[in-house]
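[SOLVED] Need 3D model of a four-part complex

Original post:
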Amino acid sequence: MNNPLIADMLKHVKLTPAEIDLVTACWTEKILGKGDYLLRNGDICRTDNFVLAGALKAFYINGDTGKEEILYFAIDLWWATDIDSFRKQQSSIYNIQALVTTRLLQINHISFEEMLKQVPALERYFRIILEGYTASLQRRIILNKVYDAEQRYVDFLARYPQLAAQVPLYLIASYLDMSAEFLSRIRKKQDIS
Amino acid sequence: MNNPLIADMLKHVKLTPAEIDLVTACWTEKILGKGDYLLRNGDICRTDNFVLAGALKAFYINGDTGKEEILYFAIDLWWATDIDSFRKQQSSIYNIQALVTTRLLQINHISFEEMLKQVPALERYFRIILEGYTASLQRRIILNKVYDAEQRYVDFLARYPQLAAQVPLYLIASYLDMSAEFLSRIRKKQDIS
DNA sequence: CGCGACGTTGATTTGCCTCAACGATTGTGG
DNA sequence: CCACAATCGTTGAGGCAAATCAACGTCGCG
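Solution:
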């Protein structure tokens, strides 16, 4: 077993060898070059995507300023899908783009539904994944209320050191709801102490 | 069939009459008076809660200022549970309190797991519910980046008119990440135009 | 080498907060 | 049934965290 997605599923649900084969066959590998788009706003998110290796950014384009607002990053062993667009097969308001060369596993919407029908245990798997993600989104909303810019940055460094290491600062700033300039000043201040 | 929870489940999954009976039996009704707590921070969220009628607020207490920061509201036919505390049966950082007299359906954690084992279709139901909630949390994060305070309030009024009608303004202000005073000024300004 | 992507720095501005005080309602106990 | 206290919303004055704008280094890469 060298499929990281199956490994992740097995952390949360039991699958028979036959089910593992069936699930494995549903997914296909794809490689994105740096700068390639996985999803553009206005398009339908046609696949559910699991990152094997690399880094992606999901962002919203601010209609007034034209600037990117980072919704999330996705690196190894995490998901990068516009859930709402994928589930309804409606056009998306987000963009997903590769920050570096990135390997993915993909499944299209029809296969996804069929896979869930064949292997109902995966309903449980995705429920559990979503529970964890929901909790992290709620925490992010609260931290944005309670913490100031510096505290958010410190918390980010502690919580996501791998992300901090491979994502440019101006994108981290956007994720953390502050300007790149202000993040720079925070970092300068911390140098001294 | 006069159980709103079962009705909601049937919108998303099929259940046999036997399953409906089984599920129905798992939940018990509870009534909270105005001001009663469903959950206090530090306690474990022992039940999953579905609101039949009434209104609740979920909030975080800011350690520095001592003020409540609204995480969400829950009114008729919506959920009010600290997902993270419930799933791990660990202590919660949030509080949930009744704004008015509120009727709930509740299920404890052991029964919840047992119910899912007996009726696997509910794994799908909760997955679908969480997908929708995840999408709304992501949208909330993006709107907080892109919209200014007035735009957030206008959007809130359009999106949740029922909430706007029954929740005091100072709590709406907290939910929308602005001070009660500033929301008051926004409303005054809108009177004129 | 030259260009684009990224980070930094300074000067200035601003959206929103904080604090404090004051109506307007509501409900509640004497 | 009224007095009085909460609770909620509003208003004014002053202040600050962070944004914006502009300019300038610096590094990696075609």
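Edit: Chain B has nine helices and seven strands.
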